[in-house]
Write a structure and sequence with these properties.
By secondary structure, this protein is an all-alpha fold. Helix content is about 55%, strand content about 0%. It is globular and about 45 Å long.
């Protein structure tokens, strides 16, 4: 993947993108970004997979962190503080920022995904805009295609603009693609974007993910 040309979001020049990346997470988050394609392709699902995905979406569990130890809670609070600082320019209101990050943390772990991966994907897909919509109709933070609400939800695509619903759908769908690709993240990201086998989109997500890494982790 090294040496490949990466397609940039609309309105961002290659020079500006490189400058913001070198300047750190805050500068990149401040750059204007439009919604990425987010074009997951509708594919037939066997009944067992459809049922499992429907069950994963339908769980009513609230996004409340549960910790196995005091140390785990302290690490979570450190993560929350670090991510909050990086996201401040995009979401200036503390309560909105906290609720968003807490939900990302909850839904990512629920789907057995790394929080940095989910945040990187959101950065590329929507620029952290709750009501983003792409030119192919993908919606919300994780740019979920409306057909998913018919396939594994209640058929109401408007709910994809609800924060937790969008994050849950996005995380469950990405986990589904990872399972289909036997853990190959490069191929799974391609599926998520509707560009399986091409490196532009995975490279964008990998680059964004690096800005959300947090090293001080224990199991929570």
């Amino acid at each position: 993947m090294s040496g490949s040309r990466i397609a940039l979001p609309a309105g961002v020049s290659r020079r500006a993108a490189m400058a913001s990346l070198l300047a750190g997470p805050g500068a990149w988050l401040a750059a204007p970004q439009s919604a990425h394609a987010g074009g997951q392709l509708e594919e037939p699902l066997i009944d067992s997979v459809r049922s499992a995905l429907t069950a994963a979406i339908g769980s009513a569990a609230p996004p409340e962190p549960v910790f196995v130890s005091t140390e785990a809670k302290i690490v979570y609070l450190r993560w929350l503080g670090a991510m909050s600082d990086r996201l401040r320019r995009r979401k200036p209101d503390w309560e909105v920022r906290r609720d968003f990050l807490q939900t990302v943390w909850y839904e990512a772990r629920r789907a057995r995904l790394d929080e940095s991966l989910v945040l990187g994907l959101i950065q590329v897909e929507s620029g952290f805009r709750k009501f983003a919509m792409s030119n192919v109709g993908a919606r919300g933070y994780m740019q979920v295609m409306p057909f998913w609400t018919r396939v594994i939800g209640d058929g109401d695509p408007a709910k994809l603009f609800h924060m937790q619903t969008n994050l849950r759908f996005g995380c469950v769908i990405l986990r589904h693609y990872l399972d289909r690709e036997k853990g190959d993240l490069f191929m799974a990201l391609g599926r998520y974007n509707g560009s399986r086998g091409k490196d532009t989109y995975p490279n964008l997500v990998y680059g964004a993910q690096r800005q959300w890494l947090f090293e001080n982790k224990v199991e929570a």
